[in-house]
């Protein structure tokens, strides 16, 4: 026991250089990541609203009441709109993640050829990705306008595909009104990553497949897609996390930063934000975020294990 | 057979390129729409009028001069017609808004809300003099009417804007300007509003007529959208008609000036630059150290540390928000040092927030640097710090730059923390825009102008450092 401790100490001493290097980061993470998270989790057990906010962590401890309110109690005001938010977040995250990856893949394949002006075209394609997300929300809020929005003008006035001008910012259309801008904003990043991945695939593989007479479709599924595995693993992982926690686009699009996105546009983040900062239910807001965090951890772990297992399968 | 193979390949290539360019067009369309809308009129955006509006060419003044006819229009357009057949002889447009005219001997005085006062030669329409003076107006689009008169040998001008009631007095000889407050009603007692004249006696005139001038036995009628009629005075029959040339396109660059004056954008821009810049620097310094340590040594706790870094990415931002907010407030009440709403406070939070991600990306860069280089330097007797400083750091610099820019762009994008943790003096662009947009819900033009201006710095940074970003990000992705 003693020997082990000593060796640990010796190791620590040996690597003192490394410890000095991570010390500032470790301190920052201790005070600005770990401590708020612990407080946040503790908050979810407190009755914290505008009356008890002054006392903060000394607010009355109510145990699992917040969780009961969020999960079970059918009459609690917190649950109004919660189901819709969960459903929207699921739909939104799934479609946006698949959409960004799909569009990014198609364009990456298009760009992965030799043609004149390739770099310029690639840079132009990156343009939406530099537009800030709050601008994206604002801009698409105007593009979706019922009378004068670009989409309705194009569909109804120019192409005459639809006989009337639908309302995009209310009703069930809303979910598309938030999905499409998000895909528009984020696919260039996937494209860039996938393009970089594509360029590492050796040309000989395709030549060999050509000699065997493989169709382009088969070449894609048997060579390109498996070899891009690490890239799309990362893209899906970050897509899932980032899109579940999407906030800016939705908050800026509806009521121009002040309104309620409606039951088909409300996401988890906007729901929690509204609960916490407009209805002052910090306790239940914290409980909802903790639940969300747990779900996220589970999903990410499933994704990791799935990836590892499929990696092993590939290696076999 | 070979030929057909290459032909097929070339054809598919062309088809793919075509689809790619079409897709590129639709990808960039929203951005183009944003910039285009920012130059349009707000109501045009709302009702879906896609084209730009043209200046109205309502006829304000007609004067027969010998065989010719002088026609002055609301867009600052000066026209001379042949009186007999209404053929356009000369045309020049001063492209003004809310114009009013005054004929004075061989000169035309032109007063407009946006460009001020001109003295124009009646014969060649050349600008004889332009009188510069300060207009008190921030939005000349809101000026509907201007007034111009010659009173006691002096040119007197005024305009309708909110509660403005001043008058400018010009001496025609010296053009000295004298500003008189609160005297508009003395000089211009009646509100001048173009009132359509009663032209029921004339057959076949369906547009609104504002000006009616008699020259011997002929009537000249001028009306809305530049319609000009020549009628017989006796039988009231239309002898001929024509239209003035189109008014100029109204590209409203003024939206930007308007927006700038309404939003205090300069302050937000400065705040955003300070906050994002310092965040980038601090996050990069700490992340470089930590990433280097993590990529080079497997020390006790290194696994825990790297797992913690990954784990932070899963935590929703909103969970930090309330504790950090309250920690800030408590810290201030305990020590008396203000944190919330100050630059150091928000920079600290941002740096900490972007640290894990930066470390994660930078680790890949350091891992890609061959260890042999550093080992060789160590054998040569360099200290660990020197090796880091002189070998590893320069080699990782492209990656550090790329990650730094990425952090900057993300900090530029951040709304939630900034919303809660900044005050009126330290507000960043997203918060400022959100506030502005909430207050001006129907000024779509100003909104788009603000959106364009908020995007512009990022676009400039991106295009200057585009190569670094692309190379850095893709290298990190493929290795990570």
Describe this structure in words.
- The complex is a heterodimer of chains A (316) and B (480).
- Chain A contains 15 helices and no strands.
- By secondary structure, chain A is mostly helical.
- The model of chain A has no long low-confidence stretch (mean pLDDT 86).
- Chain B has helices at residues 2-37, 42-47, 184-187, 254-263, 265-296, 302-312, 317-335, 343-368, 371-379, 384-412, 416-421, 429-439, 444-464, 466-479; strands at residues 59-65, 68-73, 77-82, 88-93, 100-104, 107-112, 116-121, 127-131, 146-151, 154-159, 167-170, 177-180, 209-215, 218-223, 227-232, 238-243.
- Chain B is of the alpha+beta class.
- Chain B is built from 14 helices and 16 strands.
- Chain B has two domains: 59-243, Thrombin, subunit H, CATH 2.40.10; 256-479, MetI-like fold, CATH 1.10.3720.10.
- In chain B, 49% of the residues lie in helices and 19% in strands.
- Classes of the chains: A mainly alpha (316), B alpha+beta (480).
- Chains A and B meet through α1, α2, α4, α5 and α6 of A and α1, α2, α5, α6 and α7 of B.
SSE topology sketch:
The complex is a heterodimer of chains A (about 325) and B (about 475).
Chain A: H1 2-14, H2 16-43, H3 65-71, H4 82-111, H5 118-125, H6 127-130, H7 133-143, H8 150-158, H9 174-200, H10 203-211, H11 216-227, H12 229-244, H13 248-253, H14 268-277, H15 282-315
Chain B: H1 2-37, H2 42-47, E1 59-65, E2 68-73, E3 77-82, E4 88-93, E5 100-104, E6 107-112, E7 116-121, E8 127-131, E9 146-151, E10 154-159, E11 167-170, E12 177-180, H3 184-187, E13 209-215, E14 218-223, E15 227-232, E16 238-243, H4 254-263, H5 265-296, H6 302-312, H7 317-335, H8 343-368, H9 371-379, H10 384-412, H11 416-421, H12 429-439, H13 444-464, H14 466-479
Antiparallel strand pairs in B: 1-2, 2-3, 3-4, 5-6, 6-7, 7-8, 9-10, 10-11, 11-12, 13-14, 14-15, 15-16
Helix pairs in contact in B: 4-13, 5-8, 5-10, 6-8, 8-10, 8-14, 9-10, 10-14, 12-13
